[in-house]
Design goal:
The complex is a heterodimer. By secondary structure, chain A is an alpha+beta fold. Among the domains of chain A are: 87 residues, 2-Layer Sandwich (PmbA/TldD fold), CATH 3.30.2290; 219 residues, no CATH class. In chain A, 20% of the residues lie in helices and 37% in strands. Chain A has nine helices and 19 strands. In chain A, a hairpin with a 4-residue loop joins strand 4 and strand 5. The longest helix of chain A has 18 residues. The radius of gyration of chain B is 24 Å and the shape is globular. Chains A and B meet through strand 2, strand 3, helix 2, strand 4 and strand 6 of A and strand 1, strand 2, strand 3, helix 2 and strand 5 of B. Strand 2 of chain A pairs parallel with strand 3 of chain B, so a sheet runs across the interface.
Chain lengths: 450, 461
């Protein structure tokens, strides 16, 4: 029957074959499926249970070098044939790219630890019990907890297949389990939220009591917060927010941004842009992490690489298109989902721990500093201009000890100055599966407005 | 899928004890074209297709979705969902399917993007590129794009409802980078409507490109903003994003049912300055956030949230309305079949008042005129918000003074409402995309120019 879904491998092959039959020279196709289950609890009862089963196939054709993209979530023969026709028709709009898709090439047989059968055992009953325990622990931990509005668990399994017209075929499979707790503490009219969460590759690693107490501690420690006077202070970004903060500016490292005038790092390769000893790199071969992969989104083998090494800018993140424009060999940084065009990005964006200092030492590095534990919005940060303008909450630290909580302030400055003014970093990343691994970051000074 | 098949699946859900069941089938065609660096860099199209099944046991929500349409796949999805929670059998029989609820044509489409008729996308993109580059030699990069989508929705529920809808959206985006003396700024615009390609025919592409480019160039010379508490004039249109984030989200039943809103239990109370009336209106013809029926099949409506400062109503979906004991407002929305619907905003705005910009400038000496807001975020549980300003000026001697950039506004939504001192007469709506638990949905924010006194401004000097 024409409306019976095809197997993933057959669907990919049909997409490539149809494109070739329409006269396409080069093409590649990606298939992704995701199967996940999530459960939310509120005040002792399951509020919602959601099960997701999604699939999609995306095709890129290069008609005399001109790219056209199309995708479908129907894996039937007519739907896939239409995808090929649409992509070919759309290629007529675009300008040609000077790229050649990769031929099949062996990649090292490294187990990146992306998958465990135990993910399947993370069932609704297990989730419910963990969340009940967390909710009870949160309410017991402190009398000022007035609400536990967020209690959730989930499991997810995904498979991605990539094939191209030169015979390349690769597969990536991953699975993970997650748990999160969000609490609200209140005194008088003031409420503060605290959150903790964790993603793992295998079950059995959650400690709901500890997670709840951590969330409670984060909320209650900010009660009574107020601004500090405007001025400049050394800032310690806690490892729980340092990665989110850095992520706001990581697009500056995309070759695409550089080539199109949207990065202030353009033309600065070889220059010292950060403190000596500081590294920032892409680490596709880290075991268990969510961005780990042996091939990139176009099938190029990946490798660990620094973009900032010992403070010096070494290069940018490329896909086939941007590498061809710069006349360099592909670096294996392409990223791709089935519904979008090929981009580039960090596999895992990593600030290595070498040279890092323990938290206590960082807190005591200045007579007075601000320890930032929460970011309030991010839209005042702009990767194009490098501008930093961000609301934060945290603790005023004097001689290594927290003296009072701080809120209603914004930090401002520029990302390029931030890199230059980095003083030191921590010796650990926050736990769990993630794709941005950044320790505590101590920066000499940022302007505080209040 | 046929109604008879849908009905069998819904009956199976009821037989398994569900109090209510619903099937949502969606097929959406997307298209986009983007220009950057004077070239058309990407042209893409695609189809999202899937079916979402929702079972309610009381107000407990079980939701699953799949891209398979076979009845046996959907039957097993229903069984899996029901098996994941304990429940009693129900003997209640379904009422048979009612007459279909069909689109009434409130949002007529002249050039359906499914066909090539009226496709002037390339011309619009080239116009934007050329216009923006001609504004100044300091313009170094122009990106422009168009996106459109056409959604075919069918919905059946265990109360016999069968609704269908066809929804068409079209949008243009402009992003201009200016550079001078090592400084780099960006100006953006993104108009859109619930229309087909006729939206592009009616679009002032030259004006839109110019506004974005001129803003980017003007902000190159902007100084760091002042800091501290001060009067702030919030520009019309997209300035409404503050009300959307800081007051709109806390008025959704999704926040109310988690007791995570400062507005809980405050209907009938004065929550804003009496000059403030705020509305969420899904009925505006052609507006980016408008609907005909919501994603539960309830006809959309105009909902007055705050009238002359007094809180009147929350925005609700079925589950929220039942659990919180509030009226149904036809606000249930979802990004796609991948999400269970919850109450979301549509076109949310503060209604026009009588003040003029000159009057507000006179009353805001030493303050800030925030012409164009960037984005922002809010924590509904605590009301804390933070917004960036894309284009701002100091208010000096009752006039618009020197440009500043890099400012943010910080505060709590429920504390800001009483501080709206003056409401302008220049109401405007602006389209945006709102993200929450049921995904990304098109909404409009809107307001006339407002004077808020004071707001905490985060800056440097």
């Amino acid at each position: 029957m024409s409306d019976t879904p095809l197997s993933p491998a057959d669907a990919l092959q049909l997409a490539l074959d149809t494109a070739k039959s329409l006269g396409v020279g080069q093409c590649d196709a990606i298939y992704a499926e995701d199967d996940s289950l999530s459960l939310d609890l509120f005040e002792g009862r399951v509020k919602s249970l959601e099960r997701s089963d999604s699939t999609g196939l995306g095709l890129r054709v290069l008609v005399e070098g001109r790219p056209g993209y199309s995708f479908t979530e129907r894996l039937t023969r007519p739907a896939i044939e239409r995808v090929a026709r649409d992509a070919v028709a759309l290629a007529a709009f675009t300008d040609a790219l000077p790229i050649e898709l990769p031929a099949p090439e062996e990649v090292p047989g490294i187990d990146l630890e992306q998958w465990s059968e135990s993910v399947d055992t993370f069932d609704p009953e297990t989730m419910r019990n963990l969340l009940l325990e967390a909710e009870a622990a949160a309410r017991q931990a402190d009398g000022r907890i007035e609400n536990v509005p967020h209690l959730g668990c989930s499991r997810s399994r995904g498979t991605t297949l990539l094939a191209n017209s030169r015979g390349l075929f690769s597969q990536r499979r991953s699975g993970s389990v997650s748990m999160g707790v969000g609490v609200v503490a209140k005194t008088g009219e003031v409420s503060k939220m605290g959150w903790d969460g964790l993603t793992l590759r295998t079950t059995g690693g959650f400690d709901p009591g500890a997670m709840a107490r951590q969330a409670v501690q984060r909320a209650t420690s900010l009660l009574g917060a107020g601004p500090v006077p405007a001025g400049t202070l050394p800032i310690l970004f806690d490892r729980h927010v340092a990665g989110s903060f850095l992520s706001l500016f990581l697009s500056s490292f995309l070759a695409d941004s550089v080539q199109k005038g949207q990065s202030r790092l353009a033309g600065r390769v070889g220059e010292d842009i950060a403190r000596r000893g500081f590294h920032l790199g892409t680490r596709p071969h880290l075991k268990g992490m969510s961005g780990s992969r042996l091939r990139d989104g176009e099938g190029i083998p990946t490798a660990d690489r620094n973009l900032i090494e010992d403070g010096k800018l070494l290069g940018f993140l490329h896909n086939l298109e941007t590498a061809a424009r710069d006349g360099i060999r592909p670096t294996g940084d392409a990223s791709r989902g089935y519904s979008g065009r090929v981009g580039a990005g960090f596999s895992n964006a990593v600030v290595p721990l070498e040279g890092g200092l323990p938290r206590e030492q960082l807190l005591g590095a200045h007579p007075r500093l601000l320890h930032v534990v929460k970011l309030d919005g991010s839209t005042g940060c702009n990767a194009v201009s490098g501008e930093i303008s961000i609301g934060v909450q945290g603790h005023l630290v004097e001689n290594g000890r927290s003296v009072r909580p701080v809120d209603r302030i914004t930090l401002s400055g520029n990302f390029l100055d931030f890199l230059k003014d980095l003083e030191a970093w921590g010796d650990s990343w926050k736990p769990g599966v993630q794709s941005v691994l950044v320790p505590d970051l101590l920066v000499k000074g940022l302007a505080i407005a209040s | 899928m046929e109604s008879q098949g849908a009905f069998r699946i819904l009956q199976a859900a009821r037989d398994l004890g569900a109090d209510f069941a619903e099937i949502y089938r969606e097929e959406t065609r997307f298209g986009s074209l983007s220009l950057r660096d004077r070239k058309i860099e990407s042209a893409s199209a695609g189809t999202e297709f899937g079916i979402g099944v929702r079972l309610l046991f009381g107000t407990q929500v079980l939701y699953g979705h799949t891209s398979r349409e076979d009845e046996d796949v959907l039957m097993s999805l229903v069984r899996d969902l029901a098996a994941a929670r304990p429940g009693d059998r129900s003997d209640v029989r379904l009422v048979p399917p009612s007459d279909r609820v069909r689109p009434t044509g409130v949002h007529p489409v002249r050039f359906d993007p499914s066909s090539a008729e009226g496709d002037i996308r390339l011309a619009v993109l080239r116009t934007i590129d050329e216009t923006a580059r001609a504004v100044s030699g300091k313009v170094v990069q122009v990106s422009a794009g168009t996106t459109h989508k056409v959604s075919e929705i069918a919905l059946w529920n265990s109360e016999g409802l069968h609704a269908t809808d066809r929804r068409t959206w079209c949008r243009a985006t402009v992003s201009v980078v200016a550079s001078h003396g090592g400084e780099r700024t960006i100006g953006t615009e993104a108009p859109g409507a619930r229309q087909g390609f006729e939206f592009l025919h009616g679009l002032d592409a030259v004006g839109t490109a110019r506004v974005a480019a001129e803003r980017a160039v003007r902000m190159l010379d902007a100084a760091p903003p002042p800091a501290g508490e001060m009067p702030v004039i919030l520009g019309n249109g997209f300035g409404g994003v503050i009300f959307h984030e800081a007051c709109g989200h806390p008025l959704e039943t999704e926040a109310l049912r988690r007791k995570a809103t400062p507005f809980a239990g405050k209907v009938g109370e004065l929550v804003a300055h009496p000059c403030v009336t705020a509305v969420d209106d899904g009925t505006i013809p052609g507006a980016w956030g408008s609907l005909e029926v919501d994603d539960e099949g309830t006809p959309t409506q105009r909902t007055v949230l705050i009238e002359n400062g007094i809180l009147k109503q929350y925005l609700s979906d079925r589950v929220g309305a039942t659990e919180c004991g509030v009226p149904l407002t036809g606000s249930a929305r979802r990004e796609s079949y991948k999400y269970a619907p919850v109450a979301r905003m549509r076109n949310t705005f503060i209604a026009a008042g009588e003040s003029t910009l000159d009057q507000m400038l006179s009353a805001a000496e030493g303050g800030l005129y925030a012409v164009r807001m960037g984005g922002g975020s809010v924590n509904p549980a605590t009301g804390e918000f933070n917004f960036s300003i894309e284009e701002a000026y100091r208010v000096e001697h009752g006039r618009v003074g020197a440009p500043v950039r890099g400012a943010t506004l910080i505060g709590k939504g429920h504390e800001i409402l009483p501080r709206i001192r003056m409401v302008g007469n220049d109401f405007q709506l602006a389209p945006g995309t709102c993200g929450a638990s049921s995904g990304l949905v098109p909404v409009c924010v809107g307001q006339p120019t407002l004077l808020v006194d004071p707001i905490l401004v985060g800056g440097r000097s």
